[in-house]
Each structure stands twice: as structure tokens, then as C-alpha cells.
TrEMBL record:
It comes from Mammaliicoccus stepanovicii. Its cofactor is Mg(2+). The gene is lacF. GO terms for biological process: phosphoenolpyruvate-dependent sugar phosphotransferase system. InterPro entries: PTS_IIA_lac/cel, PTS_IIA_lac/cel_sf. Mg(2+) binds at residue 79. Binds 1 Mg(2+) ion per trimer. The keyword Transport applies. GO terms for molecular function: metal ion binding; transferase activity. The lineage of its organism: Bacteria, Bacillati, Bacillota, Bacilli, Bacillales. This is PTS system lactose-specific transporter subunit IIA. The keyword Ribosomal protein does not apply.
Length: 104
């Protein structure tokens, strides 16, 4: 497998796990299990950080003058990274709402 395909798959794998974990956190908060929800947010955030590290390394390579070939797989990885960030923020808000308004 080509170097940049492997990098794209590393990003996709990490942020895919992040998104799944954030969605699970929302479900746990909906059930009233806020401790698990908070722990899942932390776990998902670590996956997201791992995806960002791979992404950062790629940006640094380009900054050093290495030509990074853009292809659909890398574009998909970038899209997944950004959507994971959005899902993280939405998960945090939904968990907050469940914690503070569920019993009112």
C-alpha cells in the first residue's frame, strides 16, 4: 500500500472510532448513564487526538516541501476528521442537555 494511502487509513480509522465513541456517549447519556457518557467522551477525544497527530505529521511533511498527492481517499480522511470534530461538539451539548434537563 502506498505511503499516503496508509496515512489516510490511519486518519479514517482513528476518527471513525472517535465518531462511534461520541455517538455511544450520547446514547449512554440518553439512558441517564452520565459517568459512562463522560468516559466515552474522553475515550473518543483520545482517538480524535490520535487522528490529528497523523494529520499534523502530513501537514509538516508538506511544509517541508514534500509533495503530497491529493486523491479521493485523502479528501475523505480530511472530511471524516472535520465531521468528527463536529460530532464531538454536538455530543458534548447533547450530554449536557440530558444531564441538566432530563429530570425537569
Amino acid at each position: 500500500m502506498e505511503k499516503y494511502e496508509q496515512i489516510a487509513f490511519q486518519i479514517i480509522s482513528n476518527v471513525g472510532m472517535a465518531k462511534s465513541t461520541f455517538m455511544e456517549a450520547i446514547s449512554k447519556s440518553k439512558e441517564g448513564n452520565y459517568t459512562d457518557a463522560d468516559n466515552l467522551l474522553k475515550e473518543g477525544n483520545q482517538y480524535l487526538i490520535d487522528g490529528h497527530k497523523v494529520h499534523k505529521d502530513l501537514i509538516q511533511e508538506e511544509a517541508k516541501g514534500e509533495s503530497i498527492p491529493m486523491n479521493l481517499l485523502l479528501v475523505h480522511a480530511e472530511d471524516q476528521l472535520m465531521s468528527s470534530e463536529i460530532i464531538k461538539e454536538m455530543a458534548k451539548e447533547l450530554i449536557y442537555i440530558h444531564k441538566h434537563y432530563k429530570n425537569n
